TrEMBL record:
Organism field: Dyadobacter pollutisoli
InterPro entries cross-referenced by the UniProt entry: DprA (IPR003488), DprA_WH (IPR041614), DrpA_SLOG (IPR057666), RuvA_2-like (IPR010994), WH-like_DNA-bd_sf (IPR036388)
One of the GO BP terms on file: DNA-mediated transformation
One Pfam family matching this protein: WHD_DprA
Phylogenetic lineage: Bacteria, Pseudomonadati, Bacteroidota, Cytophagia, Cytophagales
Record-annotated Smf/DprA SLOG domain positions: 86-292
Name assigned to this protein: DNA-processing protein DprA
Gene: dprA
Length: 374
C-alpha cells in the first residue's frame, strides 16, 4: 500500500493524464476540493459547480481510468531515480509558482537548486555562427563569479553551446526538455545531458516515454522563460522558438536581452528586430547586465528575500492598496507576477495600483520587474 503522501502524488498524476484537463484547470480543481485525492472523492454535483469545469471533464474524472497509469508512472520514476516536484511542494521552483500556466509537476534528474540566487535563460538559433559560439562562451565565462544557473533547451546551436560552456566553467545548468526524461532529444546530446546532472540537470513537465512532438516545444519554452530572471537571446532568425521564449518572458514580466549582430546576417535578424522594436535591451556585456539587474556577488535567493523592517501606516489607503503595501512590507522586493498571485489581483489592475502608489511615494520600482516599499 502507498503512503498518504504518495497517494496524493498518484491522484495528481492521474489528473494530469485525464483527457481535457490542463494545468490551469487542475489548479482550480485542487484549490476548490482541497487536494487531488479529494477531487476524485467528489461527486458530479460538486465538480460541475467548479468554474471552468464542464460535463466531459467531470465524467472523465469520475471514470478514474488514469489512476492505475499514474501509480505505475510513480513507481517507474522512483525506480529510475527521477524526482517529482508538484506545484504544492516546497521543492517546486519559486520563480514558477506564481505563473498562471506553470506546470503542475516537474520531473527532474540531477544536482541543483531551483531557487539559486541568479538564473539566466540563454536561447538562440540552432544554426549558430562562430560569432554566436564566441559570444555564448564569453557570457558563460563572465557569469562564473556570480554562480548563476543557466537555463536552456538542450537543442542544437546556442542551447548546447551554453550547456557545454557551463560544464567547462563549472556553472550549474538546466536543460528543459520537450520530451520525457528517458527520451533525450536530440540523441547526440545524451552524453552532455548525463554530464550536466553532476552540476545541474534535466527538467521536463512530460511523463516518461513522451516523444518530442512539435507542439511540445513552445510549452517547453515557457518553462525556460519562467525559470529565468532574465532571458538572453544570442542569435535568432526573425521567426523561431527563441522569439516564442521572449514572448513568454515578457508576459511573465521578466527582462529580455538580445545580442546585436551584423546587419544582413540571418542569424542575427531576430535579435536586431527585438532591439529595434524595444522588445529587448541591447546586450553589451555581463557586467552591464548585472548592473542593470541590480545583482551582486551575494544576491539573495528568491525564497529568502529579506523582509522590510521599516514601519509604516496604511491608513488613508484603499483596501487593495493596503493589501499591496502589507505584502511588500512582509516580503520585501517582489516581482509583479508574484504580487498578482499572492494578492489574487489581475495584473492590469495591480499595475495601475502600483503606479498610483509610486506617485504617492509609497512604492518604488526596482530592476527585474520588482517592486518594494520606499
Amino acid at each position: 500500500m502507498l503512503q498518504s503522501a504518495e497517494d496524493e502524488k498518484v491522484f495528481t498524476l492521474a489528473l494530469i493524464h485525464t483527457a481535457g484537463i490542463g494545468s490551469v484547470t487542475i489548479r482550480q480543481l485542487i484549490s476548490y476540493c482541497g487536494g487531488a485525492s479529494h477531487v476524485f472523492l467528489a461527486d458530479y454535483k460538486q465538480l460541475i459547480k467548479i468554474p471552468g469545469v464542464g460535463d466531459k471533464v467531470v465524467k472523465a474524472i469520475l471514470a478514474k481510468r488514469t489512476l492505475t497509469m499514474a501509480e505505475k508512472e510513480l513507481e517507474n520514476c522512483n525506480r529510475s531515480g527521477i524526482d517529482l516536484h508538484f506545484f504544492t511542494d516546497p521543492t517546486y521552483p519559486a520563480r514558477l509558482k506564481p505563473l498562471y500556466d506553470a506546470p503542475v509537476v516537474l520531473y527532474t534528474k540531477g544536482k541543483f537548486d531551483f531557487n539559486t540566487a541568479i538564473s539566466i535563460g540563454i536561447v538562440g538559433t540552432r544554426q549558430i555562427s562562430d560569432y554566436g559560439k564566441s559570444v555564448t562562451e564569453t557570457i558563460i565565462k563572465d557569469l562564473e563569479p556570480y554562480k548563476a544557473m543557466v537555463v536552456s533547451g538542450l537543442a542544437y546551436g546556442v542551447d548546447i553551446t551554453a550547456h557545454r560552456a557551463c560544464l567547462k566553467y563549472n556553472l550549474p545548468t538546466l536543460g528543459v526538455m520537450a520530451s520525457g526524461l528517458d527520451v533525450i532529444y536530440p540523441a547526440g546530446h545524451q552524453r552532455t545531458g548525463l554530464e550536466m546532472q553532476e552540476n545541474g540537470g534535466l527538467v521536463t513537465e512530460n511523463a516518461l516515454g513522451t516523444k518530442p512532438d512539435f507542439m511540445r516545444f513552445p510549452a517547453r519554452n515557457r518553462i525556460i522563460a519562467g525559470l529565468s530572471d532574465v532571458t538572453v537571446v544570442v542569435e535568432s532568425a526573425k521567426k523561431g522558438g527563441s522569439l516564442i521564449t521572449v514572448e513568454f518572458a515578457q508576459n511573465y514580466h521578466r527582462d529580455v536581452y538580445a545580442v546585436p549582430g551584423m546587419i544582413g546576417s540571418g542569424q542575427s535578424e531576430g535579435c536586431n528586430y527585438l532591439i529595434r522594436d524595444h522588445k529587448a535591451s541591447i546586450f553589451t556585456s555581463v557586467e552591464d547586465m548585472v548592473a542593470a539587474m541590480g545583482w551582486g556577488l551575494e544576491t539573495e535567493k528568491p525564497d529568502t528575500i529579506p523582509t522590510v523592517q521599516a514601519q509604516c501606516s496604511f491608513e488613508g489607503f484603499t483596501q487593495d492598496e493596503g493589501q499591496i503595501l502589507a505584502l511588500l512590507k512582509q516580503k520585501g522586493a517582489v516581482q509583479i507576477d508574484e504580487l498578482a498571485w499572492q494578492s489574487g489581483m489581475h495584473q492590469n489592475k495591480l499595475a495601475t495600483l502600483l503606479l498610483n502608489l509610486e506617485f504617492q511615494g509609497m512604492v518604488r520600482s526596482l530592476p527585474g520587474k520588482k517592486y518594494g516599499l520606499m
